[in-house]
């Protein structure tokens, strides 16, 4: 088996560069956020809450622009039955950052939370926080797996090694990056990451476009040359499926710890909003070279290249179209630079998700649910241990699941259906309680899992209107795989049902207990009668006492409430955004 020495050297150089930046950032900021009684564990999670616009804008953009983003976008533009019309991630995630900045960043940052799960545990209790940790963890693991899968595919093209081996090697490097330092190392390596992706891809695109085997992409966008046009189209029968997936990306891209980790590390609530808007623009800009590379792949006569007579789609290698184009359509020195830069760059996305998952476990599960008296050093060691465990889980997912885009959609599914409606309720709806939260969780989970998941080979037990049986042909083996495709927008329906169940059951249990129709002794979750029981955590354990929050954000002005204010937390939508959610629930 041939080893491409130049490509290996390029990877090593870029890995060393990112590793050096990570170590330098950890050393430079080793005391940031720790002074004045601060905790080392919290500094690892959210830095010193002093991330500025420059580094913050890069690191928040890099939250989404990783291996899955650039490889997945190129893959869907290239696929004959999909094309640009179905490459929804750039606009979907850009809009998720805009919506997150407009409505969610300010209330979360101004209340000084440390993780995304803090408001849930604060209002719904530690047991409900533990339940919500499960889909949040799965989302981070799937996301990390998508990154590792994409990076493994890229590495296997460069150095011609087994893809499973390259995924394992990549995972080990990602775990090591995460242990080098906390959020500071992640943030500063993200700056290097985006520069590497930008330079590596844009240097390669002109060479690939000028290759004799590539037809004019402006022609192949609308006319079939070697395959169907790469612009793609949305058939009328698929419009609801397209809309369902788009809303999944747009709204399901908000309730992620990797996003709120950046929001909560911003130096102010206003900065957190600005960072979200900057990152939305950055996501769109960084998608352009991936779209072009996918279009180039669809416009290439592969028989004229060193790749071989069969195109990638006929070898079931569509998910590797980006490294294949760089490897076979560019001069060696260009392709090795581009592939090396991209390979090293996307690595720093994996440490972000693994750090997010370990932060939630160490704080919201280990410390707040089981070991309230745990020392700061103990929490740091728990984080280090879980980094290894979650890294191993992500690696297993990367090895066992197929398409990069499939991993991507799957990672947003449970977050979208379960956590997003819960986040809406805890921040903006007055009067929701633990009973409603449990009901919403169950409704969303059953309706979503009931629809099945082809990527996990999970058959449906709920057949929604418009379902069809599809077949997938494995070109290399000739095997035919049949699966059920749900064309009804059941994911968005599951999300809405989860939200409505939360609100309805919260008000129902509130009425039943307060009217006396149910005895107070049956309030076993202490969610209505005993609101200030031990189950509802003291705010002082959840909100940091040493956050850099400006005074104007700490001075909420209670407005006169109309009919909407009876049910909606209007202060969360105001510019103040500093009042904590339990203040409103206490009024009900």
TrEMBL record:
* A GO molecular function held by the record: choline:sodium symporter activity
Q: Which UniProt keywords apply?
A: Glycoprotein, Ion transport, Membrane, Neurotransmitter biosynthesis, Sodium, Sodium transport, Symport, Transmembrane, Transmembrane helix, Transport
Please give the Pfam families that the UniProt record associates with this protein: SSF
- Please write the reaction equations for the catalytic activity of this protein: choline(out) + n Na(+)(out) = choline(in) + n Na(+)(in)
Q: Name one GO biological process term.
A: synaptic transmission, cholinergic
Q: Name one GO cellular component term.
A: axon
Q: What is its main location?
A: membrane
- Which parts of the chain are coiled coil? none
Membrane topology of the entry: Multi-pass membrane protein
Where is the chain membrane-spanning?
Answer: 7-27, 85-105, 131-159, 165-184, 191-209, 240-259, 271-296, 333-358, 379-400, 406-428, 435-451
Tell me the superkingdom of the source: Eukaryota
> Where in the cell does this protein reside?
Presynaptic cell membrane
Could you say which protein family the record assigns here? Belongs to the sodium:solute symporter (SSF) (TC 2.A.21) family.
Fill in the subunit field for this protein: Homooligomerizes at cell surface. Interacts with SEC14L1; may regulate SLC5A7.
Role this protein plays:
High-affinity Na(+)-coupled choline transmembrane symporter. Functions as an electrogenic, voltage-dependent transporter with variable charge/choline stoichiometry. Choline uptake and choline-induced current is also Cl(-)-dependent where Cl(-) is likely a regulatory ion rather than cotransported ion. Plays a critical role in acetylcholine (ACh) synthesis by taking up the substrate choline from the synaptic cleft into the presynaptic nerve terminals after neurotransmitter release.
- The protein's name is High affinity choline transporter 1
The organism encoding this protein is Amphiprion percula
Q: What is the lineage of its organism?
A: Eukaryota, Metazoa, Chordata, Craniata, Vertebrata
